[in-house]
Structure formats: C-alpha cells, structure tokens
Specification:
single chain, mainly alpha, 2 strands
Length: 284
C-alpha cells in the first residue's frame, strides 16, 4: 500500500509540473490554452534528440527542455496568442485546438509517428528499500524536483514584485498600464514560464508517460482535470488536485484494474459536485 501511495505521489507531482503552466495561464491570465500539451511535447522531443543524437547527459537536457519550450512559448505568444487575450473563451479554444493539430501533424512529418524512449542514467534506475518502503529512485527524484518547483512557483507568485504585477495586470490591465506596469511584457514572461514548465514536465515524463506526436491530445484531458479539480485561483489548488488524482489513478489501476482508468474521472465528478469551482477555487 505504501509503495502504491509513493508511486501515486510521484505521478501526481509529474502531473502538476505538466499542468501548472495551464493553471497559471487559465487561472491568472484567464486564457484557455488547449495547446499547452504541445509545449510539453516540445520539451520531451528536445530531451530525446539531445540524448540520442548529441549524447547530452539527462540532467543537462532538463534545463534545455525548459529553455526550448519557453522560447517557443514567448515566440508564439508575441506572434499569435497576444491577439487572442481579449477574445471569447470559445475563440481561444478553437484557436488553441487548431495549434494542437498543427503540432501533431508537424511532429509526425518531421520526426515520425513512432514511440520515443530515453535511457536514464544508471544512478536513476532501480528501486531501493527506504524505511520498509520499496521506492523507485527515478520517482523519488521526480518528487524532490517537482516539490521544489511547486514551492518556488508559489513563492514567486505570492511574495515577489513580479507576482504582484501579474495579479494587477490580470485584475485590470488598463489601470495596471496607468501605474507603469508593462502588461504585455508581464504576460509574455508568464506565458514563457508556463510553457517552459510544461517542457520540463515533458522531459521528466518521457520515461513514465511515453512520447509520440499524439502526446498533446492524449494528455489534454488530464491537464484540464487538474485545473478543474484544483480551481483556478492559484497553484495550491492544482498541486493538491494533482496529488489526489495521481494517487487515485495509480491505486485504482492497481486495486480495480477493470475500471482503473475511470477512477480519475469519478474523482473529478465527485469534487465538482461538492465544490463546483474546484478545491481551492472561488467564484469570479
């Protein structure tokens, strides 16, 4: 039971890093970006290509995946996304879902449709006994790294000047501009950071989740469930939601494999029935 709980926490941490960028853009910027998974896919393919074709060590690929996805995010934000901020959510959904299909088709054309794999360094392989619990080394690595990222992100949003500027820009962009806040720059940096975190999550998740051109479509619903269950008022909600959903998914597939794939949806329905705005959400 403890091992299942540990694996569920690791999976939940990975879901959080993959989905927290969407939580930021949807919750703080009020932008529905269904193409968020494409940035995660970009980070995953960056890692695969650097490791397989350039021999770059795995740990060096992680910041590279973040940077590549962040650069891609800021380029697309300046060229395309910023024109959609004031449009309706339906327009944003149609726009971003179109980007998803373009990303899937482009990746299939450029890199093929086969499943991609990476070879982790030897020190991240295997399992060890820790206080009587059979712990996977790579999953422990994910828990430590993603936990540190979650703390850092929460502190950045609540205890820094940039976080204050972002909240002000979201609440009233016109007043924020009048106070001298560069709203466009704040949104661009926020979007780039969210995209970079998705890329980092894609790099970390390649070993566990797999990677192919359909990645953005396959995991889109998971990102949306995390944000819906956690609420869109910050990152604490998606963090708790990710842990809850990760543990429920792993435990469900282990104990009731016949319906294990549906447990995550049952949890979502139960939470939204009791709390329609999510665990930590509040009515706008």
């Amino acid at each position: 039971m403890t091992t299942i709980l540990f694996d569920g926490v690791a999976y939940g941490m990975l879901l959080f890093v993959l989905a927290c960028g969407l939580a930021v853009t949807l919750g703080l910027m009020n932008f529905v970006n269904l193409a968020h998974g494409a940035f995660a896919m970009a980070g995953g393919y960056t890692t695969v290509l650097l490791m397989d074709r350039a021999g770059v060590p795995f740990l060096a690929c992680l910041p590279a995946a973040f940077v590549v996805a962040a650069i891609l995010g800021v380029v697309l934000e300046r060229a395309l996304y910023r024109h959609m901020y004031d449009r309706s959510h339906l327009d944003q959904v149609l726009f971003s879902i179109g980007l998803v299909f373009m990303a899937v088709s482009g990746t299939t054309w450029a890199l093929g449709s086969s499943q991609q794999n990476i070879r982790l360094p030897a020190w991240l392989l295997g399992r060890v006994e820790l206080l009587g619990v059979n712990v996977g080394i790579y999953r422990a690595f994910i828990i430590v790294l993603c936990g540190a990222l979650a703390i850092g992100l929460q502190l950045a949003l609540t205890h820094t000047r940039f976080g204050s500027r972002l909240r002000a820009a979201v609440d009233d962009a016109r007043v924020a501009r009048g106070l001298g806040i560069p709203v466009g720059t704040v949104f661009a940096v926020t979007f780039a950071a969210g995209s970079g975190l998705a890329g980092l999550g894609g790099a970390l998740g390649t070993e566990i989740l797999g990677l192919d051109p359909n990645f953005p479509l396959r995991f889109m619903i998971y990102f949306l469930i995390v944000v819906a269950v956690g609420g869109t008022s910050g990152v604490a909600g998606p963090f708790v939601a990710s842990l809850l959903l990760g543990i429920a998914d792993v435990a469900g597939k282990y104990y009731v494999p016949a319906i294990g794939a549906f447990i995550i949806y049952l949890v979502m329905i139960a939470v939204l029935v009791l709390r329609p705005h999510g665990l930590f959400g509040r009515p706008r």
